[in-house]
Amino acid sequence: MTQFANDAFLDGSAAAAAHGMWPRAYDLASWSVLYRFVSLTHSPSPRVAADGPWWFEYEGYQQIRTFAERNHYPLGYAARLFAGILYEWSEVDAVVRAEVARGPLRAWKGRGKQVAAKRADPRDVAVRHGLVTEREPSVSARMTPMQGPLEVLQVYIPGLGRPHWQFNDLMRLVDVQGIATG
């Protein structure tokens, strides 16, 4: 039976991942390179910003980057489109590249789910919907990650982020790059 460096954090992690994706078990080998979109505006350091469970593998990151370049979008805005990142959660003004330093790690990988804003940030789009004849159509502040052929899979790593904060034990920060947000 494979021993994972994050075994102690696996209980309940599938349910936590299922809040934001359709998860399936996935193993990350030592030295796997991953990418995470973060907000350095709201974080005291890149290492603290990197300590979160939501990541992309190289192929997904490259697809987001290429989409941004081809369509003349800021990379931060493209990340919002592909990952369903609300403004109330992050400014998405940097991308962190890190390696699995202590592996293998058990992770969850899957398609992103629709997310709902709590209206903490007015920049999160509120879309009016309902019958045209209604006086006050209902308002929905939901965001669906990119779907179809452009869809990328997200990776959720148990042990990173709240409440465990194990980035320093499991990962190695390779670099941090500021990016245009949107």
**Record field, number of beta strands:** 11
Low-confidence residue ranges: none
Number of domains: 1
The strand order across the widest sheet is 1-5-10-3-2-4-11
The sequence of SSEs as H and E is HEEHEHHEEEEEEEHE
Q: What is the gyration radius calculated from CA atoms?
A: 17 Å
Broad shape: globular
Query: If helices are DSSP runs of H or I spanning 4 or more residues, what is the number of helices?
Result: 5
Mean pLDDT: 90
The main β sheet shows up as: 7 strands, antiparallel
| SS-derived structural category | alpha+beta
N/C terminus separation: 45 Å
**Proportion of residues in extended strands:** 25-35%
Helix proportion? 10-25%
Draw up the topology in text.
Layout (H helix, E strand, L loop, with lengths): L12 H6 L2 E8 L4 E6 L7 H5 L3 E4 H14 L3 H9 L10 E7 L4 E8 L2 E2 L10 E3 L8 E3 L1 E2 L9 E4 L10 H4 E8 L4
Antiparallel strand pairs: 1-5, 2-3, 2-4, 3-10, 4-11, 5-10, 6-9, 7-8
Helix pairs in contact: 3-4
Question: Can you describe this structure?
Answer:
There is one protein chain. The protein has 182 residues and is an alpha+beta fold. It has one domain (7-178). The protein has helices spanning 13-18, 46-50, 58-71, 75-83, 167-170; strands at 21-28, 33-38, 54-57, 94-100, 105-112, 115-116, 127-129, 138-140, 142-143, 153-156, 171-178. The chain has a seven-stranded antiparallel beta sheet. It has a two-stranded antiparallel ribbon with strand order 6-9. α3 (58-71) packs across α4 (75-83). The protein is globular, with a radius of gyration of 17 Å. The termini are far apart.
